[in-house]
Amino acid sequence: MIERVLVPIDGSEMSLRALRYALEVHPEAEITALHVVGEPSGMMGEATRLALAADLQTEAESLGAEVVASADAVAEEYDTAVTTKVAVGHPARHILDASEGVDAVVVGAHGGSLADRLFVGNIAEKVLRRSPVPVTVVR
């Protein structure tokens, strides 16, 4: 029986679709929505904020607030609550690390834009290939 489900979220419609799928298919499970903010870098807009932040985790949570709010809104549609977490670093690595403590992972196939499809699709593929637990990829 699946008791704990991890759903990586990035704010895209595809990741929210994955969350809806998890809520529908696993209504009794404890669902954790994980948003991973990219590693600090001076070359990217939001990552610059992270690189300059005095408190990295607080800044990451600030950057991820809108994504977390969208996950909470989806959970409200199902009259339930999900646990939300925000991490900083490489998305695939954090997802795989978090998958160690769950029974299944439900991930969106890709994000919306071409860059999202290349980046997030690549993450979904890495998670699918390396996860120690079953992975469902939602389109």
TrEMBL record:
<dbReference type="Pfam" id="PF00582">
    <property type="entry name" value="Usp"/>
</dbReference>
<dbReference type="InterPro" id="IPR014729">
    <property type="entry name" value="Rossmann-like_a/b/a_fold"/>
</dbReference>
<dbReference type="InterPro" id="IPR006016">
    <property type="entry name" value="UspA"/>
</dbReference>
<dbReference type="InterPro" id="IPR006015">
    <property type="entry name" value="Universal_stress_UspA"/>
</dbReference>
<comment type="similarity">
    <text>Belongs to the universal stress protein A family.</text>
</comment>
<protein>
    <submittedName>
        <fullName>Universal stress protein</fullName>
    </submittedName>
</protein>
<feature type="domain" description="UspA">
    <location>
        <begin position="1"/>
        <end position="139"/>
    </location>
</feature>
